[in-house]
TrEMBL record:
Name listed for the protein in its UniProt record: 3D-(3,5/4)-trihydroxycyclohexane-1,2-dione acylhydrolase (Decyclizing)
Keywords: Hydrolase, Thiamine pyrophosphate
Highest rank taxon of the organism: Bacteria
Molecular functions (GO terms): 3D-(3,5/4)-trihydroxycyclohexane-1,2-dione hydrolase activity; acetolactate synthase activity; flavin adenine dinucleotide binding; magnesium ion binding; thiamine pyrophosphate binding
Domain Thiamine pyrophosphate enzyme N-terminal TPP-binding span(s) in chain numbering: 46-126
Annotated InterPro entries: DHS-like_NAD/FAD-binding_dom (IPR029035), Myo_inos_IolD (IPR030817), THDP-binding (IPR029061), Thiamin_PyroP_enz_cen_dom (IPR012000), Thiamin_PyroP_enz_TPP-bd_dom (IPR012001), TPP-bd_CS (IPR000399), TPP_enz (IPR045229), TPP_enzyme_TPP-bd (IPR011766)
Domain called Thiamine pyrophosphate enzyme TPP-binding: residue spans: 419-569
Species for this entry: Parathalassolituus penaei
Length: 617
């Protein structure tokens, strides 16, 4: 057996560069790059190894560890999990900074390989700089924080352990069911230790998506259930994108005139103007879809984990409706007492379509869906039209940005606050990757770094990052990275002077304005400072400007598209006004007892919805 002497870090990087993926018949590297912020925990080991392959596996320097991991997540999401990235940071705070991003990847089931530096395995110099000493368990380090937010975790304490660990890491990263973040903690001394590795361990490996067909009995039961239905609704989830099943899905719903509601992750599965696309579904969904769900006799959920925002906290759907879940993961397929159909959507949807024969929903149901869809599109037109005020609503801003974007090519990115609700309802796209929302974890601060990752995945698309002032202030440093790397993003900052979304929720639950809008916070006598977002972005290397209304925003967007570098536009917006049409109840617990009459009234309203929820359990 031929061997090659490598350090542990060199072996990791050599193995990763040997991993390939097939995309549309073309063989490409599985790992498109490595994000790295070096410190004493990874610079001598992984840093040296990455330098040796810098042309084959590019290393990108970021400004914030959480931010670079968000960029890696957005890249993999935009690539439909067919390519991914690596993230490495130093031992201590650098690595722990990535834990939040690991949770984002875990919830959204996005593959990212985390290689955090760790303390000395030999323990000779303990305690080292930035080491967290645990008084009762000396095997614990701060990297153990990755365990609950990783799909696979290992700590490499000997170089030869890679022979077993790396194949398992790749299994998880590429598995359609278990897919998610992998963390291999790397003690800094072990990174530099050498071992005679078999050369065969580094042979090229081509990964292809594994497709699981449905069980014959489950398929027959699903066909029988659908044939009994007269008023069905289909929920399109993100799994349709990851399966590459969009053509099969379009054929299925078109053939049988099935009304479709899209989740945040599923949006783009159908073009916005497709006759079966009713709009989105759930707490921030379209009135058209939600109205149908309240009267449907069958819900067909495809590739969705059925989170509370999609189901209206289980209080939105007709309690007598049956639920059929087509999902590659049995974990999701059995939720909500569903009849499970476990299988890959690309394989299973044609089998369903062929087996249904001449079945169709009730004719009045098809007509009702068409009418509701037309009415909803009128609502979208009204909500996104410029009212001509100097304090526009989020919906008006969404409309202006949407009109500037190419619906067949461009991408909008968002994650947190009130904007995800307005975007889910109102954004129109024909591009299946044109809507990029991180709404599994809804992580504030994802937006700007996520926009960078999306642009790296699709450099020919304009990427529009829509972000509130709160999220911008949480994490904005990757603006400088976008300028440094030459990946231009267009940023629109909606400044409502605080956390407007949670302020509205606070008031809905009966509370007074408190600690959300800046005017309701504890401040010095002069109040909180008015942040100059345009000046801040300019200081990070972007071009920028502040506008006063929608007309000026539309003009600025033209300049932004012409700009060769990242461009930020900021404007003040209305913190209170949202699109009232559509939506459904969301379960946010209200106190049972309060001295405030408004809270007591909110509690009574809450209990009435809880009764509906109970009927769906």
């Amino acid at each position: 057996m031929k061997t090659i002497k490598l350090t542990m870090a060199q072996a990791v990087i050599r193995y990763l560069t040997a991993q390939k993926t097939e995309i549309n018949g073309e063989i490409k590297p599985m790992f498109a790059g490595c994000w790295a912020i070096f410190g004493h925990g990874n610079v001598a080991g992984l840093g040296e190894a990455l330098y040796q392959v810098r042309d084959e596996l590019p290393t990108y320097r970021a400004h914030n560890e959480q931010g670079m991991a968000h960029a890696a997540i957005a890249y993999a999401k935009t690539m439909n999990r067919q390519q991914m990235m690596v993230c490495t940071a130093s031992a201590g705070p650098g690595s722990v900074n990535m834990v939040t991003a690991a949770a984002v990847a875990h919830v959204n089931r996005i593959p990212v390989l985390f290689l955090p530096g760790d303390t000395f395995a030999t323990r000779m110099p303990d305690p080292v700089l930035q080491q967290v000493e645990n008084f009762h368990d000396y095997t614990l380090t701060s990297n153990d924080c990755f365990k609950p937010v990783s799909r696979f975790f290992d700590r490499i304490t000997r170089p030869e352990q890679l022979l077993a660990s790396l194949p398992q890491a790749m299994r998880v990263l590429t598995d359609p069911i278990e897919c998610g973040p992998v963390c291999l903690a790397m003690p800094q001394d072990v990174q530099t230790m050498a071992f005679d590795f078999p050369e065969s361990f580094f042979a090229e490996k081509i990964h292809r998506l594994r497709r699981q067909g449905p069980d014959a009995r489950e398929l027959a039961d699903a066909v029988a259930l659908i044939k009994q239905a007269r008023k069905p609704v289909v929920i399109a989830g993100g799994g349709l994108h990851y399966s590459g099943a969009l053509k099969e899905f379009e054929r299925f719903v078109s053939t049988y005139h099935l009304p479709v509601g899209e989740t945040q992750a599923g949006k783009g599965a159908l073009a916005w103007d497709h006759p079966q696309n009713m709009g989105t579904i759930g707490v921030t969904g379209a009135a058209s879809t939600n109205d149908l769900c309240a009267d449907a006799d069958l819900i067909i959920a495809v590739g969705t984990r059925l989170g509370d925002f999609s189901t209206g906290s289980r209080a939105m759907v007709n309690p007598d409706a049956k639920l059929l879940c087509l999902n590659v993961a049995s974990f999701d397929a059995i939720k909500h007492k569903a009849q499970a159909l476990v299988g890959d959507a690309k394989l299973t949807l044609p089998l369903l379509a062929n087996a249904l024969g001449g079945w169709l929903p009730n004719g009045h149901w098809i007509e009702r869906a068409d009418n509701l869809r037309t009415q909803w599109q009128r609502n979208v037109d009204i909500a996104t039209t410029d009212r001509g005020t100097d304090l526009p609503t989020d919906a008006e801003v969404v409309g202006a940005v949407n009109r500037a974007a190419n619906p067949d090519k461009d991408i909008v990115v968002c994650a947190a606050g009130g904007l995800p609700g307005e975007l889910q309802k109102l954004w129109r796209t024909r591009y299946d990757r044109g809507y990029h929302m991180e709404y599994g974890y809804s992580c504030m601060g994802y937006e700007l770094a996520g926009g960078l990752g999306a642009k790296m995945a699709k450099p020919d698309s304009e990427v529009y990052v829509m972000v509130g002032d709160g999220s911008y202030l949480m994490l904005n440093s990757e603006i400088a990275t976008s300028v440094m790397l030459g990946y231009k993003i267009i940023m629109v900052v909606l400044d409502n002077r605080g956390y407007g979304c949670i302020h509205r929720l606070q008031q809905f639950c009966g509370g007074p304005g408190f600690n959300n809008l800046l005017e309701d916070c504890l401040t010095v006598e002069g109040g909180a400072p008015k942040t100059d977002f345009a000046a801040h972005a300019a200081a990070l290397g972007a071009r920028s400007e502040k506008v006063n209304n929608i007309r000026e925003l539309e003009q600025a967007l033209v300049r932004a598209k012409d700009s060769p570098v990242s461009y930020l536009i900021t404007l003040d917006t209305d913190a209170l006004n949202t699109t009232s049409e559509g939506g459904s109840w969301w379960d946010v617990a209200v106190p049972e007892v309060s001295p405030r009459a408004e809270v007591n009234e909110a509690r009574r309203r809450y209990e009435s919805f809880k009764a509906r929820q109970f009927n769906n359990l």
